[in-house]
Amino acid sequence: GDMDQNSYLDIFSQKGDYYDTQKFDLTLKDMWLRKRKGCWELKCPTAKEASSDHSQAAALCTRYQEITDVPEIHRRVGEVLKVSPEETQTSSEQEDEPWLVRCGLVCFAEFTTERRSFTLSEEEEGVQIDLDQADFGYHVGEIEVLVPEGGDVQCALEKIRKTAQRLGLSNDQKVEGKMDVYLRKHHPEHYAKLLIEHVL
């Protein structure tokens, strides 16, 4: 049957520290700066397509670009926080501390996630299903397709829609992400601001 073709990929645990300014300049723009295993990552929304896509698949998905290149992260964060590049330049050997201080960035959330990853079958190539369990007691799953720069986003959306259908998932209801739940529990003011700005 269907289930025999499922392949179990991986299980791992990772701690993430999330940073922003006191005024939440980054997260209010839906930009998420985090440090995991000593590496910086910046998740920011991809530029919206010129034609507004109101399809069911688009409604079901959030699209982010994930940046791991540190100079590029410094540049993007500097643009938002209006900190000039000269001030944020650090050689790779230097500590993060001076950069964080100059930008006024502080850690606003930290939690550990245990993730189990699966692929369903060969027919939806490149589709990964992640089941996450956060250490503050929340479980959530996501269907993920990574699209290379300039890749076919529509095709990826369609794959996600088909996979969701196979799993019996509907898009009637927006599921809360781990961060939504964490902030609602621990930082209700920050959570409220993000809701007002329609980030969450």
TrEMBL record:
A biological process (GO) of this protein is: thiamine diphosphate metabolic process
Return the SUPFAM superfamilies for the record: CYTH-like phosphatases (SSF55154)
Q: Signal peptide location in the record?
A: none
* Sequence ranges assigned to domain CYTH in this UniProt record: 4-185
The name under which this protein is listed is Thiamine triphosphatase
The major lineage groups are: Eukaryota, Metazoa, Chordata, Craniata, Vertebrata
Gene3D superfamilies under this entry? Hypothetical Protein Pfu-838710-001 (2.40.320.10)
User: What are the GO MF terms of this UniProt record?
Assistant: magnesium ion binding; thiamine triphosphate phosphatase activity
What SMART domains does this protein's entry cite? CYTH
The species this protein was found in? Gouania willdenowi (Blunt-snouted clingfish)
UniProt cross-references to PANTHER family, sorted A to Z: THIAMINE-TRIPHOSPHATASE (PTHR14586:SF1)
